[in-house]
Amino acid sequence: MSSELKVAGVDAPRAAIPRYAWYALVVVASANMLNYLDRYILSILAQSIKADLKLDDAQLGFLLGTAFAVFYAVVGIAMGRIADRLSRKKLMAFGVGLWSLMTALGGFATNFLWLSAARVGVGVGEATANPCSHALLSDTFPQRNRALALAIYLSGSFIGSALALILGGLIVQHWSSYCHVVPIAGACGLAGWQAALITVGLPGIPLALLLLRVREPVRPQVDEGNAVGVIASELAASLPPFTLFTIHRLGGGVELMRNLRLVAIIGVVAALLIWATGDVAQWVAAGIGIYAVCTWGQVQKLRDRPLYALTFGCRTFLMAMVGAALLGCIGGGVSVWSAPYAMRTFAISPVQAGVSLGLLNAVAAVCGVLFGGWLTDRIKQTDRRAPIFVALLSLVGELPFLVGMMWSRDMTMFLAAYVGFGFFSSLWGGAFAALGQDLVLPRMRGAAASAFSLFAIVVSSGAGPYWAGKVSAMTGSLEAGLFSLLLLVPVVLVVFVLTMPRVRSATPESRRALAEAAGEPAAAL
Questions:
Q1: What share of the chain is helix, strand, coil (3-state, %, to 5)?
Q2: Which has the least CB within 10 A, 18, 277, 419, 460?
Q3: What are residue 185's phi and psi, to 5 degrees?
Q4: Which residues are CB-neighbours of 20 under 8 A, at least 6 positions away?
């Protein structure tokens, strides 16, 4: 029996982790850092882009959210199964190269359509990151170290987010001074925001080559000889309207009608929300993302019942995924709006906000996610509910610091509370990344990471920042918008409390039995 399937805390004698595993972790974590740097750089450049390209707020909102997030979710859902069937390091290297190139090409944009296409490309490229990296690291590191390894990987996201604020603010404000030392003709002809996109995009190209040197664990189900067919088949399972043909091919007219009913329900709900809020782009994008996630689950039920039984057909997986997404709404909403709140309340410049918040968030969040991963691994040696305990600590710990941020009357107090919030809000990331992997078989890790993380992104990124902003617009108070996120706290508590006994009983043996009952061959267990 593989040690990966033993109960936590009773692994076989502990062999030293090989050097190639640490190399893989460093390179993959670096890719994750660039992932978030390229993703969030646009937020601090938004005002300059709006002025130069003469955009309105609706177009700017599309660039900041919809253009990236929807295609990220749709492609990312398919990427989970693709990552389980093809070389993960090659897929990730391609993705890093693509999103880096598209970020840099965005720096040459002269109109809305050009920049929109570039952001769509960034989303498509970054969709490879989580499923490939989570699965690769989970196969490389033993279960006893998995949460810490994934926490180190996730720390790159906080560093990248911080660098986006710091580098973006510095370059956009001071490019006219920097450009004279750049040995490239015409550098001073670029706007600051264009230079920023090119600067952060180019380093991903050499990193993609380093990813190809990662040693990938041998997997019998890799199908390199049919890579194009695998990719086309999986994209057809999540990319509308091709999903309808896939559903009909796999399940016939009955399943097609179920999917069409899903389309109708999402369409009606989205229409009602558009009518109530007037925010067309927000709810169209959310509807597409939710449809892609739900349809992917339906496809797996028809095509891979063991995978479905351990993910979308499993209440433990679903409840953990929902809890993580709702917890992410709070942290995501506060994170996105912290810089605008500080600039409005304390009258500081974008550079001041970017440097101070970026540096402090990097330190606090990295410490938080690493400590959370370490704590999870320690507790999990005796109790499988460790990820839930750490998530509850994160939820309860961040609340007083959010209140402190909103009630601060000077920047020093605000920054002190911001550090505490950043630490506690990041505790649970590595814990839940490992939980999602622990609930499935090794062959399913890419798909599980994809479903888990992308559902969280669709819900938290789509709802948290929007919710706070909408309440702010309605009340005229961003403070009220951020405080309104606290309405989620009792909901998250209830979900996690109900999830606890399920996680405790989700032993490796019970998960194997569930997969076997759904048709998993004994040889694959």
A1: 85, 0, 15
A2: 18
A3: -65, 135
A4: 140, 214, 215
Which pairs from 471-480 meet CB under 8 Å and 24+ separation? 472/337, 478/337, 478/340, 478/341, 478/344, 479/341, 479/406
Helix ranges, 347-385 (H): 350-380
Is 83:450 a contact under the CB 8 Å cutoff? yes
φ and ψ of 6, to 5 deg? -80, 160
d(CA 452, CA 457): 9
Q: Within a 10 A sphere around the Cβ of 508, how many other Cβ atoms?
A: 20
Contact (Cβ atoms closer than 8 angstroms) between residue 261 and residue 247: no
Kindly state the tokens that stand for 211.
């990813």
Q: Are 50 and 102 in contact (CB under 8 A)?
A: no
pTM of the model: 0.76
CA atoms of 429 and 369, how far apart (whole Å) = 6
* Distance between CA atoms of residues 197 and 314, nearest Å: 42
Which structure tokens are listed for 144?
Answer: 């006893």
- Give 118's contacts (C-beta < 8 A, 6+ positions apart): 102, 103, 105, 106, 109
Distance CA 191, CA 115 (A): 14
303 Cβ contact partners less than 8 Å away, ≥ 6 residues apart: 237, 250
For the chain, the distance separating the N- and C-terminal CA atoms, rounded to the nearest angstrom, is 9
CB 235 within 8 A of CB 299: no
**Which residue stretches of 278-425 are H helix?**
280-303, 305-310, 315-346, 350-380, 386-407, 411-425
Q: H/E/C letters for each residue in 160-221? A: HHHHHHHHHHHHHHHHHHHHHHCCCCCHHHCCHHHHHHHHHHCCHHHHHHHHCCCCCCCCCC
Strand, coil or helix: what is 233? helix
User: Do 376 and 430 form a contact (C-beta atoms < 8 A)?
Assistant: yes
Cα–Cα distances in Å, from 248 out to 129, 255, 290, 297, 523? Answer: 30, 7, 20, 15, 31
